[in-house]
Amino acid sequence: MEWTSARAGSAFARGGWLGLRQNSTFASVRGRVGARVSTVTVELVLADGRSWTLRTGQSFLIGRSPKNTVHLTGDGLVSRRHAVIELRRGGLYLTDLGSQNGTFVDGERLTPHVATPVHAARKVQIGEHVLSLRASGAFDDDEVETQARRKLPLPEDEFALLGKIADGLTGVVYAAEQILLRRKVAIKVLRSELARDEPTRQRFLRQAWLAAQIQSPYVVEVYDVRTEREQACLVMELVQGPSARDRLRAGPLPPAEVLRIGEDIARALQAAAEAGVVHRSISPSAILLHPSGIAKLSDFGNAKAIVTSTGEATPLRQLFGTTAYAAPELARAAEATLAVDVYGLGATLHHLLCGGEESPADDGLSPLSRCPLPASLPTELEQLIEAMLRDDPAERPRVDSLPDLFRSVRLRHYRPDRASSQAMVSETTHRRRPRDPAED
């Protein structure tokens, strides 16, 4: 389905979608959501093939600055911060941020600083760039007081649900607004059948606690965890940007960008290691690309302390999510060490360089079997990824060496197009060396 834009005062602006169903009650009642809330997404597509996936509760900045999520290059008619597009409960809205040359929808210039509803397949023009908008999903309009609301152990006057972001094996993720703090958050709700199982419920809470111990701008922040009446949910930072998996839909990522992502996620792993945590399920879906230009590691649902109180390994059958990027030692039910995450990051970066859809969680196929690395890559980058993917964990690079390795290759072969990670965020220059139980 495609979208076109509509003018303020059109049927859309008066309260109706053309193409997606909208429930006016859903759009106006704070803290409530329809009985069957679909995952609504809007794909923004440029003529050059680049695309971005916008989910409920997200807003993407559009402009010439590389810090924008939708980065429009080589066009002097585009302002540094030109416009913002947002998918709310009530629909899709586009706002011109006072740009010099304007934002146009179906040939009509938008009023600056006024959020204008947009829908159904007319084009958005910014400078010489034309964005096509494609929507999927719908807001269902049955039973405003819903199962989704009842599954959340959260006061209705504290959080306003905006819609569903994702639906996974272990739970559902919603976008929400934390009313008093006026910030948007992501809320992961453990599936009820899992929440009723006490060992699974305790594992969910333990993993939430582990994620909360990691202090790093390269890790999605955990704000709170709530439990009530055999229910459990996690309140987290909502990243206003696409995942690396979203980016794969437009094809392989440029090597310079892959190196930046590798450097940032390596710093996330460094921070996790210092907190004594192994992630164990790194994949393109677990990497979120923040508008500031940094990559953030999310989804610590499979995380485990490096040393547990029992010292026992978690069998692979207890792991949820994709195994396509899993280190070979996990299949042997070996204890997870830091080398597991080195392998997972290497497999993920290999996939980002090759392109293609992310492997299904249950097909058992590694992305490494789908395509070789591009021949045009610098030899150093190819060798680094190959080293990260060695079968023997002891032969892989150490976690604490990875950020500098990625940075060195990037600066040697690609012109820097953003401030270094150290300049963009406050990070400790000298880190203690993470302890790996494999060395004990």
Overview of the molecule:
The chain is an alpha+beta fold. The chain folds into 3 domains: 41-140, Tumour Suppressor Smad4 (Sandwich); 151-237, Phosphorylase Kinase, domain 1 (2-Layer Sandwich), CATH 3.30.200.20; 244-307 and 315-415, Orthogonal Bundle (Transferase(Phosphotransferase), domain 1), CATH 1.10.510.10. The chain is built from 11 helices and 20 strands. The protein has a 6-stranded antiparallel sheet, with no helix packed on it. Strands 4-3-5-6-9 form a 5-stranded mixed sheet, with no helix packed on it. Helix 6 (255-274) runs antiparallel to helix 8 (338-354), helix 6 packs antiparallel against helix 10 and helix 8 (338-354) crosses helix 9. It is globular and about 60 Å long. Mean pLDDT is 76; it is low at 1-37, 140-145, 307-321 and 418-440.
Indicate the topology.
Layout: H1 24-28, E1 41-45, E2 51-55, E3 59-63, E4 70-71, E5 83-88, E6 91-96, E7 103-105, E8 108-109, E9 116-117, E10 124-126, E11 129-136, H2 147-150, E12 159-167, E13 171-178, E14 183-190, H3 192-195, H4 198-212, E15 222-228, E16 231-237, H5 244-248, H6 255-274, E17 277-278, E18 287-289, E19 295-297, E20 304-305, H7 328-331, H8 338-354, H9 379-388, H10 402-413, H11 421-424
Parallel strand pairs: 3-4
Antiparallel strand pairs: 1-2, 1-11, 3-5, 5-6, 6-9, 7-8, 7-10, 10-11, 12-13, 13-14, 14-16, 15-16, 17-20, 18-19
Helix pairs in contact: 6-8, 6-10, 8-9
